[in-house]
Amino acid sequence: MMGAGLHTGLIALIPHKAAVLFLLSSMLIDVKKGPRTALIITFSLALPLGLIAAALVSSHTTDTWTIIILEAIGAGAVMQVAIFEMLPEALTKPHRLMKIFTAFLGALLIAFIQTTHGEHAEHGEEHHLETVHGDDHH
Q: What residue intervals traverse the membrane (predicted)?
C-alpha cells in the first residue's frame, strides 16, 4: 500500500513542479549562467533529497511528534515564502481581484481534497485492520 501512496504523491507533485519550474525559469532569464545553473541544480535536487530524508526519518522513528514537527517546519517554510515573498508582489499587478478569487478557490479545492481524502484513508485503514485481524464482516 505504501507504494500506491508514493505514486499518488509523485503524480500530485509533477504539475506543481512543472509550474514552479516555469516560474523559476522566467525569473532566472537575467541571471548569469553560473549562478543560474547553481539555482537550477539546487531546485532540481530539493525534491529527491527531501523524499530521501523523509523516508529515512519515517523509517527510523515511530514518534508521531517527530513527524508532526518536521512536517510543520516544511509547511511553515512554504507558507513563509508564499505569504511574504510571492503573494504581495502577485497581488499588486493587474487583475488583482481575479488573483484573489483564484487563490481563494485554490484553497477551497485543497481543503475539499484533504477532507475527502482523509475520509477515504480512514475507511481504508479500518478495512485493512479488520482484514489483518480476521474481522472482515462487511
A: 6-25, 37-58, 64-84, 96-113
Task: Supply 60's cell numbers.
Answer: 527510523
Q: Read off the pLDDT of residues 79-125 as tens digits, 9 standing for 90 and up.
A: 888 888 777 877 777 888 888 888 889 888 888 888 887 655 555 54
Q: Give one word for 61, left, alpha or beta, with left for phi > 0 and alpha for psi -120 to 50.
A: beta
pTM: 0.47
111 to each of 42, 106, 118, how far by Cα in Å? 30, 9, 10
Domain boundaries, the chain: 13-114
| Cell 508532526 -> residue | 68
